[in-house]
Amino acid sequence: MKIWMQGAFVVAVAAALCGAAAQAQTDVALSGYRTFASSTTSNSSNGFVTHQTPADSEGGLFEWRHIVNPLVGYEFEVTSNPANQSYDNPNATLPNCFPLGPINATPPTCQPPLKVSGEATQFGGTWVVSKKIGNLRPFVLGGAGFVVTVPGKSPYSVNTVMRPDFIYGGGVDWNFEKHFGFRAQVRGNMSKAPNLSDLFNSTTKYTQVYEPMAGIFYRF
Fold first, then answer.
1. CATH of the domain at 82
2. What is the mean pLDDT of the chain?
3. Assigned domain for 139 exists
4. 157: domain range?
5. What's the mean pLDDT in 120-141?
6. For residue 198, is it within any domain?
7. What percent of the chain has pLDDT over 90?
8. How many domains in the chain?
9. Residue 58 near residue 80 (C-beta atoms within 8 A)
10. DSSP letters of the chain?
């Protein structure tokens, strides 16, 4: 009986390993996306607050992904997109404000929104859970990384900022050829708003950036 059980165990382990090997795959992918970011507002005791609004933009994603089995997969990715910001004081609509007053005045004054430009590059690593169903492979992912935002051409963009970044999302792969496929996904990123300018302080609050994207992958 013991010999039979040992033999069955060996067969089961071998079958599991073969199954995992059959589902394992490595691919690289390029995708394009558009960002949709949430604005944030800082708190202040003197009436001067910062309302920070990221501009929506287009960007690109490069992924290297390795799937071992449905529960074990991982990837490393790099994204790049413009990260322009708009800063303003929402209290500048108060009756006692004055047009084009000093930007740091108390009480607040009517200062037009300050627009600054920047470029954001994200580096991240995520865990991937997926399931192959015919030519389709739905997946979900989650992980972390960091975002480096460098100042652009605006004269008010002066600071380079690095922030930790939390990544999550999901999508589906469709193999239309042995080595090539189409990938559609939606990703979310959560990080603190960057402080690109010294004229306005950053809100330093977490902002959400949603990225619907689509692209092509090559499977080795």
1. 2.40.160.20
2. 84
3. yes
4. 24-88+114-219
5. 96
6. yes
7. 61
8. 1
9. no
10. -HHHHHHHHHHHHHHHHHHHHHH-EEEEEEEEEE-EE--EE---SSS---EEEEPP-EEEEEEEEEEEETTEEEEEEEEEEE--EEEE-GGGGSTT--BT--TT-SS--B-PPEEE-EEEEEEEEEEEEE--BTTEEEEEEEEEEEEEEEE-SSTT----EEEEEEEEEEEEEEESSSSEEEEEEEEEEEEEPP---SSS-----EEEEEEEEEEEEEE-
User: Quick check: 100 pLDDT over 50?
Assistant: no
Burial of 190 (0-12, 13-18, 19+ CB in 10 A): middle
State pTM to two decimals.
Answer: 0.79
Residue 59 has pLDDT above 70, yes or no: yes
Q: What is the pLDDT of residue 43?
A: 76
- Find the mean pLDDT for residues 76-104: 72
Residue 37 is assigned to a structural domain of this protein? yes
